Amino acid sequence: MITEARVRDIVNALEDPFLHKTLAETGGIEEITMREEQNHVSVKIAIAQTGTPEQLQLQMRIVNSLKEAGVETVGLRFTELSEEKIAQFRGADAGEKDGGLLSPNSETVFLAIASGKGGVGKSTVSVNLAISLARLGKKVGLIDADIYGFSVPDMMGITTRPVVRGEKIIPVERFGVKVISMGFFVDDNAPVIWRGPMLGKMLNSFFKEVEWGDLDYLLLDLPPGTGDVALDVHTMLPHCKEVIVSTPHPTAAFVAARAGAMALQTEHELVGVIENMAYFESKSTGEKEYIFGKGGGDKLADELRTEVLGRLPLQQPDWNEEDFAPSVYAEDHPLGAIYQEIAAKLDTKLSLK
């Protein structure tokens, strides 16, 4: 039977969906009762606002987390925090942000994922890198800034859309990552026919009108190449870090160098290169076949005076109909383990700066 201390640890680690503080920080747990003979746990929790979709999402996370820890049945009761406590945390949050994500005082690390051309798996890398950072315990957001070719919601198996609370858009959360995408705001598979200034306004709203809360990392899945959206990102985020994704083919690396050169010219800091589709490894023989050639990632890193953060082979993720996420690699999948290594390397590298 799980202990009360363990229940408290599990629930305290989750966030109040409105204050973006952990329940440990808000003192949200008001009561825990346990019936050992039935392996049942009841928890009374205070949050900023009840009777909302966000409460239901938190409720599901609590139930799932406790059941994963061995509890058979879970009972939950929700009440609202006092106005004084809500004001206390909202006031502290406003002071910390001092203007939000784009303010000079923001401590969020912006990490753009770029490529020179399409088809190199940049969005797949963005999604799995964001999830891997979240698995490290980081607070992570992901903007699908590939406004013409948005694909992140489909890749992550997201079927819900953001809700609006007051004047703020609440991002959709999956796998511990808060996500916003142009795909949430257009009809299914409808084309986006916009000019550069309109794209810039939409991108700006992703930063200023979305309730991101307290983030350690905000990743941006940029469009391929060096067009309007990529330029807008470079202009809006002068202190952004950047990772370049390429295949090992020399031509792909040559084209990717343009995106890297643009980053350097706009004073973005290149933190590394990820070589995707580096090889195919036979399950029967273990032999590696370098389908797209070799050496492109190293050559690109040398040219951009940075390092290769990791090499990802060609391999499909495992998924099922119940937990549909066709581009997400599980933590124990061979590629999931490589993504975890890359995320840990990036986190160490960026936390030292």
TrEMBL record:
ATP binds at residues 116-123. It holds the Pfam family ParA. One of its GO terms (molecular function) is 4 iron, 4 sulfur cluster binding. It comes from the Bacteria. InterPro entries: FSCA_dom_sf, Mrp-like_CS, Mrp/NBP35_ATP-bd, NUBPL-like, P-loop_NTPase, YlxH/NBP35. Keywords: ATP-binding, Hydrolase, Iron, Iron-sulfur, Metal-binding, Nucleotide-binding. GO terms for biological process: iron-sulfur cluster assembly. The keyword Zinc does not apply. Binds and transfers iron-sulfur (Fe-S) clusters to target apoproteins. Can hydrolyze ATP. HAMAP family: Mrp_NBP35 (MF_02040). Homodimer. Belongs to the Mrp/NBP35 ATP-binding proteins family. This is Iron-sulfur cluster carrier protein.
